[in-house]
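Entry 12.
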Amino acid sequence: MTGTDSLSPLERDLYECMLAREGSVLSRDELLKSVWGFQSPGMTRTVDMCVRRLRGKLKG
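Predicted 3D structure (tokens):
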């Protein structure tokens, strides 16, 4: 995985989840359940922030 060496374990899990569902739209709830292992309506900002960090790292 080029450019993914600096990812945290959580960011790597998120990245792999998104790669596995490439071309699909993933809701925050789906990501919470798949990556974090639970569903909580109050955690949507957590997903947003992790996705933002992941995008920043992958852009380099």
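Annotation: The chain has one domain: 9-59. The chain has a mean pLDDT of 88.
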